[in-house]
Give the backbone structure.
Amino acid sequence: MLRQKERRQQRKYQQFREFQGLRSFLESSTLISSGLPPCECWRTKQHKEQPVCHSTDVLECVVNISEGRNLELLRTLAEACGEDLLDVHIDGDHNRSVFTLLGISAPRRLSQCAVELLHLQNHQGVHPRLGVVDVVPFVPLVGSTMFEATQARDEFAEWAVTTLGVPCFLYGTEKSLPDIRRQAWSSLIPDRGGPDGHSTAGAICVGARGLLVAYNVWMSGDTSAEAAHALARQVRGDGIRTLALNVGNRWQISMNLI
């Protein structure tokens, strides 16, 4: 069943890449601009001709990994994604990287590789996290529906529990990601898997959501913790999620526009 779905998705992605001009996007990708050495599959992908098909339904998956400093390890994770990797954003202060992927297979390959290579207890960074594979949202694009994204979410969670032994919290219409971060392991247990986290990988937050814009603002050097948190509370509202994070010697207001 997964192979049949993946073949259908692959046919859909080819036209998406053509129509959206993703070759030029890949050539200027933050994977390269961040200093991460491109792997062979990445070089090949930039110059490979892609056939055109007639379907335009696309699911995107934006996987947040709790690692943003070990570039060789990140290169290995990027290679695991294969042809479906569109972009990697690396943040050393947050010690976090965001892999933008197409489809339902690449998120599984990336997650399996991350669970094998990373240890949550060794992680240090300013961004809150529940696992080495922290957030896996499926996003409907170009003709896809939220129903399909939710189905992909649920199937990924079942796979993660069965194959990796990592419990999963689900978010979407039922509850939000901030709800999970506030209540996990206290009043909220994973929706899939046992009540305890994986010994080295923690838990995964798997979601289905619409498009999201991440927008960070740096505060002046003399901004106090109280002022930063007060500003984050003031900006927070419907459609805007905020965190005040202490990054180095400065405060940052991290925002998600949803």
